[in-house]
Amino acid sequence: MPSELQLQVSPEIAANEKLLYENVAQLARVSTKLVHKVVILKRSIDARQKAIKVNLKVLVYLIDEKYTEQKIELPNYENVSNKQEVIIIGAGPAGLFAALQLIELGLKPIVIERGKDVRGRRRDLKAINVDHIVNEDSNYCFGEGGAGTYSDGKLYTRSKKRGDVDRILQLLVAFGATPDILVEAHPHIGTNKLPQIIQDIREKIIECGGQVLFETRVTDFIIVNNEIQGIVTHKGDTISANKVILATGHSARDIFELLDRKKIFIEAKPFALGVRAEHPQELIDKIQYSCDFRGEHLPPAPYSIVKQVNGRGMYSFCMCPGGVIAPCATNPGEVVTNGWSPSKRDQATANSGIVVELKLEDFKPYAKFGALAGMEFQKAIEQKAWQLAGETQKVPAQRMVDFTQSKVSSSIPKTSYVPGTTSIEMGQVFPSFLTQILREGFVQFGKSMKGYMTNEAILHAPESRTSSPVRIPRHHDTLEHLQIKGLYPCGEGAGFAGGIISAAIDGEKCALKIAEVLK
User: Fold this and answer.
1) Long-range Cβ pairs for the range 430-436 (8 Å, 24+)
2) What is the value of pTM for the model shown?
3) Of 101, 91, 77, nearest to 479 (Cα)?
4) Burial of 144 by CB count in 10 Å (0-12 exposed, 13-18 middle, 19+ buried)?
5) Structure confidence at residue 519 (pLDDT)
6) Which of 409, 398, 421, 399 is nearest to 327 (CA)?
7) For strand 218-224 and strand 211-213, is the pairing parallel, antiparallel, or unpaired?
8) Fewest beta carbons within 10 Å, which of 107, 113, 163, 344?
9) How many CB atoms lie within 10 A of CB 519?
10) How far, in Å, CA of 182 to CA of 184, rounded?
11) pLDDT value at position 439?
């Protein structure tokens, strides 16, 4: 029977199979010749000391122990063409994994997506980057795969209590993701590789008898006696079903407005908002690895930082080593930023959202909007940024030290944000309380990470779509909406997830609950 070992080695040993086997043999107190196979179960980097180490959890097979490579395969999905139908609104991770789970349970998903398929989205991404044209149905947030498809594919989650994280990762591997995501402490697929995986998931759904309708926006819900009976599309078509999973993501403002207009219970939810900071990756490597040059066996360094400033949490969010900043507006007349990395994380810059926790009382100036007060607060900042940027997708920008000193930067170097930048004093973008917290927080960040506070770092504003500004409440046990029977609020847009993995888990949970009711 193979033995499990925990070991800590240098990056050079971790990257060299011969050296690793020798190290494992020494730890196991056997000859290297007796080590047949070393299988890495988990891998993480410990950069807390000057001598950087790689933590490994491994299974060791000796020559008299049989090793069979485990191939991860898809479940045996049956054809559900003639099975009971369930509508899924949204083809992000929550919607797609809900669809796969429904097929596995013998139900037919009808996935309705307002945006284009994963390939068709590319033309609209080019339009916003190059021509500053925002397609409100097809952009970085809307379209097949949701916001995660073209914003990195980071798979790290703290939501292990919510469901089976390994199951989601294994499904992604079965659909073509690298098996490394099963091993790495902070798994990541990369924007260049995720689209093909998303396409393969969609093709499997269709192959098994499910439906996927692109460029189809939901404009109404059919509700009789507080029970959902179907939906109406912008084309005037009616699709009937008494089970609907609502997985539209954190930026589907028209859906929030529709729910509010129909007096379907929703509530304002706190979220976080701030800026996206970009540093040279080489500088972050020096800070994190305490060295002049990052070795070839180390990945581009990430960072994570949290501070309490004036009673508010200020923290890094969606950090992208070797990545770029993208324009993520979903409507004309607004500026929104986010970040992503390719699979190799080989770009020259590192970026991260640096955001501040908001409270419900911050939305009081927008109280007349009721449950949509947080959304209107968010919208007002994005529209202000667009106006300050000359009514283009050029993002308001400022050097970090200049921002802390309320000084307009005399020049802004070219950043990874393709539409370009406009140098302004960014205190104009935010309410004064938020500006003050950000300024004080960056000073504290600089004290914790020596070298972080520098005018080489460029701030881009705003980073505003960290999570949904609205919660669509549901019963804890059935997952149905508190008021509307058969409606299952799901994923990030409903306020029950915070990333690809947690959204996928929530999609599966809603599908399982529906199957329980129907069977």
Assistant:
1) 430/273, 430/381, 430/461, 430/462, 431/362, 433/362, 434/273, 434/274, 434/356, 436/310
2) 0.95
3) 101
4) buried
5) 81
6) 421
7) unpaired
8) 344
9) 9
10) 6
11) 98
